[in-house]
Each structure stands twice: as structure tokens, then as C-alpha cells.
Design a protein that fits this description.
single chain; alpha/beta; Rossmann fold; 2 domains; six-stranded mixed β-sheet; 27 strands
Amino acid sequence: MTPITETSALPLIAIENLSVEFSGNRVVEDLSFSVAPGRTVAVVGESGSGKSVTSLSIMRLADMMGAKFAQGHIRFGGQDLLTLSQKAMRSIRGKEIAMIFQEPMTSLNPVFTIGDQICEVLLLHENIGKAEADAEARRLLDMVRLPDSAALLKRYPHQLSGGMRQRVMIAMALACRPKLLIADEPTTALDVTIQAQILTILRDLQAELGMGMIFITHDMGVVAEMADDVVVMWKGKKVEEGPVAEIFANPQHPYTRTLLAAVPRLGSMAGEPFPKRMPLTVLQDGAPVLVGEERVQDTARYDQKPLLTVKDLSVTFDIRRTLFGTVTHRLSAVSKVSFDIHPGETLALVGESGSGKSTIGRTIQQLQTSRSGDIAFQGKLLSKMSAAERFHLRRDVQYIFQDPFASLDPRKTVGFSIAEPIHTHDILSGQAVRRRVDELLERVGLTSAHADRYPHEFSGGQRQRVAIARALAGDPKLIIADEALSALDVSIQAQIIALFMDLQAERGLSYLFISHDMAVVEEISHRVAVLYLGQIMEMGSRAQVFETPQHDYTRRLLSAVPVADPTRARRGALIEGDIPNPVHKVGEEPAILLHEEIETGHFVARRA
């Protein structure tokens, strides 16, 4: 990192006594902190603590949401940003202060191509022509390691996976080489290998440009790896601030101690044959206390027939056609994938963004058609089911989406959204529906009063809890959780993991748990399947995959996990070599890997 000279020791941005209100409710109160050039300040705290509102206030985007600035100043470049007009802010936004948003699908314009949106930033703020902007856009996509960048420029946001969309947002934010970068959960949707790459890119750019960073995250491993200083927020107020090493080694505030106690740590389950439901650390009367029981999660019923069987599943997408409509290139999203899920079992699918995890989940949920292969639920093939049976299957198999804002209807209250599956499948009627909605909201850590609010009135983590409540409404047998915990801060994440495990113990629920968070996967799963470019590289019990990984790719995934320890040396190596590309010419499909069973239930891919 660049040494801070006497001239650069002055803050790049200073937030002084900032208070922000919405409809008379104060959500940020008397907040002060500053960022010096070349320094990174991590803002941490639970969902709803005011982290994102603070970042939106700096960008003056909170104004559009109805925010009122009750007091305070935001000083940047010799001026108070709170006194500037929106027109004046437009010359600063994107150029001098850039922001990576938490939810890329709602931040990218669905009617413009990726190339158009990156070029728009460059043409607006940089004195370059369209051809130069196109070349720079492609370079930016290569920098964030997106494959086939020339073709990607012509694609639309809905044609990309969640992690790929997040990398497009990062590329756009870095396009004009800003003085200050605000990163609001920038690596939430990214797998650990790409996350390590992006963090290295951000650090290198910071050293090169002397760029200041405000890093909003709930991933304490990322905080340990990136931050120089930490600001801890709780209920809209700053409760602790200090150098990163000091905050981790000697947290003073009870909330900070609670937050650090909730961090899942890779390797903590070593030697355990089953997942464990652990007690939660919560704040009670201003002090952190342990609540709940410790319980071995021996719920998987391997003596029973599988609830779900996937056999040789392949899914492809036609990418390019000739003028006459003949397909020339296909994306092989999933290639010959097979696995079972038993009653009461949690199978985790892990792998990089674009490896086919979400495509498998969507195909099981009948949201995506397969090219070949079979899916059977309770012994019956989906292809042989009647329309009525398929409809009933949608109640038994529920999906929790990665992006909760995109999956909730913005015009309906969350109570309506949670009640919808209850009405659709005629489970309850009358007042019983409202009682069930209230019960579900309280089960996921919200209150019955939240039922009458709309999705935009919640934080990202709260919206994800609403999505989980909606998935539970139909009393399903299998829940497909697609990055369901990625938007949650660690304290709420720990509560939801405990909730998932309690529901599994009570109801015999099964989970297909799609995630890139290896520490959470180790904590919650009975078995793990590691995906790479649409094929399973390794599959086995949690202990087999995490404690004795056999495939090189599995080892690479585990070594890339950020560790919540700021005293460890920060990694700086970039991933070398070609960017993996799942797009192939028709007739040149990828070779299908064979699997070898090296011990009972432990399969490893070998070259065909």
C-alpha cells in the first residue's frame, strides 16, 4: 500500500456528525469518520444498521429514496457534498467517487447490453471516442476475469450469472479510476477464487492511484484482508472505531464481540462426522451471551430411498447463430451431473460463479429445461409427471433466490408475497393465513409489523429473510437455497443457519445448498459436491471434501478462503493463465470427465 505522506494525510473524505432520516425515522445518527488517500475503512454491522444508507448519502442517491439530512457534513475535495445540487453531483458520481452496489441485477439496466453500460460511463466522464471506449470496456472485463469478453459486451444482464453481473459492476466502478471507491458488499455474489482476484485488483489499483476505499461488508475475512481501519455500526450509530488489528484482537463494545463470535471459521468442524447446530452468541442486556443448544445434526436418512435423484443432467444455452438461425456456439452450463439427496440431508453445491450451480437448482425447480438427463422426485421422473403432479411438486420443492429484491414483487407487501403460496396451494384460509404469515416472519427474525411493508422498505439482509419465510410457507420437503445467506451479515447468517438446522430436525427437511461460502458450507452440509465448468470435480461427505480434498481445484477453492485474522500476510498473487470459457463451437463440446470412487462415497474426477 502507498505510504501516506504529510500532504496526503489530510482526509480524502470526512463525514461529520451525519444524521439521516426517512419519514421522520432516524436511521443514521451522529456518524463521523474519515478516509485518507490510499487507506481502506471497512464499515461493518448487521443488516439495517445504516451502512448502505451512509454510502448512498455520500453519493447523494439517498435523496431519491426520500432521505432527509437532519444534520452533519460530508466534505470531499474542499466542498460539502450535502450542499451540492444533483446536477453538480453528476460530474462527481462515477468519475471521482464510484460505487459498487450490493444488488447488481437491480443496478444494471436490463434493456441495454453490458458493453453499452460500461461505455456510457467512459463516454460521459472521459474524453474518448466510441472505439476507444469499446476497447477499454473489453480490457476492464478481462481485468475482472470474465471469459470471452468481446462476446460478453453484446450480452444483456439477464444472460449472466449473479457473480458475473457483480464483476461487471466492479468493472464499471473502476472504469474512470476514481479517487474514492465505495464498495457495498462488492464480493457478496463472488466465489472465493474470483473474490481473491478482485481484492488483489482493488489493492493494486489503490496502491497505484492512492485511491481511498470505504468497504461495506459482513465478511470478516474480507475485512481482515482489506481494511486498515474498521467502523462498527449498530442501530444507526457508530459503536466502535479503530485499526483493524486492534478491533479483532481487543474488541471493546459488546456488539463488536458478538459480531466476531458469529464469524464461521473454516476448519472449525474438523474431526466431526456430522454438521453441528451450535449455540448462538446474542446481545442480552448489553452483554454477549450464548443461547440455544448444541446438537449433532444427524438427520440424514440414508436408509431411506432418495427424495431427489438427478442422473446425467445436461443443460446448454444457444449463444450464437448464423444469419439463417443455425446455432454455431453453445454454452455448456451443466454436463452429465448426477447426485442424490436423501430425506433430512443437506447437499451443498460449491464452485465458481458460472460453474452451473444455479442452473442445476433452476432445472430441478422447473424454471429451466434440460438438454438431457433425468430428474426424479420421490421416485417419480419429472418427465412422466402429469400437469397436476408438476404443480404439486412446486409446493414440495421451494426455491430461495440469490437476489431477494429481484424475486419479490415491488408492488405487493411482503405479507402478501409470503401468503401467496399458501393461497395458491390452498393450504389455509381466512385469518389462519395471517397468523401463519406472522409466525413465519417471527421465525426468521422479523416481526408481524413487517408484513405490511414493501420490499424497498427493507435492507438487503431483511429482504432475504422475507424470501426464506416465503419458501417455508408451503411446508416443503426440499428447499433449494441459492446463495440464500450471501446477503446476510454474520450475526443474522448464524441465526438463519440455526433456523435451517432446527427446521430440518423438526420436519425432516432436505436442502440443496448452493453457496460459495466454504466456511458456511462446512458448518451446515452433510455432503458436498464441487463444480467446475458444469461438471462435478469432487463429491463426498463434508469431512472427506474439507479434511482430505483430493482434486486440485477443491484444494484451490479452500486455499482461497479469506481468514478472519488481520495478522496473517495478505495474499497478492493474481490468477494466471486463460480465463475458463464454457462456450464451445457446436460439435466441439467439452470432454466428460470420469469419476473414481477413492473411498466409500468419495468421488473424484479423472481425465477421460
